[in-house]
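Anyone up for a design puzzle?
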C-alpha cells in the first residue's frame, strides 16, 4: 500500500462529526502552565503561610458578615424570647414595671412560644440574604487553592474574575468563547 492509499483509507474512516470537532486548542498560552514548576522548600513554606493567612482572613470576614446578618434578622426573635423569659415567674421573674402591669405568666409563655415559632422562617431569610450577598460580592472566590503555594505561576483566582466585586469584568474586551 502506498502513502496515498493510506491517507485515503484514513479519510474515509473518519466520520463527519470527527472532522468537524477537532481537539480543542488552549484558550491562551498563559493558561498553559503544564508542567508547573515546583517552588523550593522555603519558598513553599512562605507561600503556604500567605495562602493560609489569606484564606483564614477571608473565612473570618465571611463569619463576621454572617454573624451581623443573622443578628439583625433574628433581632425580633431575640427580643421577644428575652422579654418572655424575663417576665415569667418560674424563670427570672423581673421586678420591672412592665412585667408586673402588662405581662403575666400566660402572656410571658405566649411570648416565648411566639419567639421560637418565628425563629425558623427568620433563619431561612437570614441565610438567603447571606447567600445572595456572598454570591453578589464573590466572597467565595477569594479563597485560594493550596497549589498557589506549591507551584510557581498559579494565578490568583479573584484577579482573573475581575477583582473582588467583579468590577473589572465589564472592562474585559477579550471574550473567550467557543462558537
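Challenge accepted. My sequence:
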Amino acid at each position: 500500500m502506498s502513502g496515498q492509499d493510506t491517507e485515503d483509507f484514513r479519510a474515509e474512516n473518519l466520520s463527519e462529526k470527527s472532522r468537524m470537532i477537532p481537539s480543542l486548542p488552549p484558550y491562551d498560552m498563559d493558561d498553559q502552565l503544564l508542567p508547573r514548576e515546583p517552588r523550593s522548600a522555603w519558598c513553599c513554606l512562605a507561600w503556604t503561610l500567605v495562602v493560609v493567612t489569606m484564606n483564614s482572613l477571608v473565612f473570618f470576614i465571611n463569619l463576621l458578615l454572617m454573624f451581623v446578618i443573622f443578628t439583625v434578622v433574628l433581632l425580633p426573635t431575640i427580643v421577644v424570647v428575652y422579654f418572655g423569659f424575663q417576665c415569667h415567674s418560674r424563670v427570672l421573674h423581673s421586678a420591672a414595671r412592665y412585667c408586673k402591669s402588662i405581662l403575666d405568666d400566660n402572656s410571658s409563655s405566649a411570648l416565648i412560644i411566639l419567639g421560637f415559632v418565628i425563629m425558623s422562617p427568620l433563619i431561612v431569610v437570614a441565610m438567603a440574604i447571606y447567600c445572595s450577598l456572598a454570591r453578589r460580592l464573590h466572597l467565595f472566590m477569594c479563597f485560594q487553592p493550596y497549589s498557589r503555594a506549591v507551584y510557581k505561576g498559579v494565578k490568583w483566582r479573584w484577579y482573573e474574575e475581575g477583582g473582588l466585586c467583579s468590577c473589572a469584568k465589564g472592562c474585559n474586551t477579550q471574550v473567550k468563547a467557543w462558537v
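A detail worth pointing out: The chain has eight helices and no strands.
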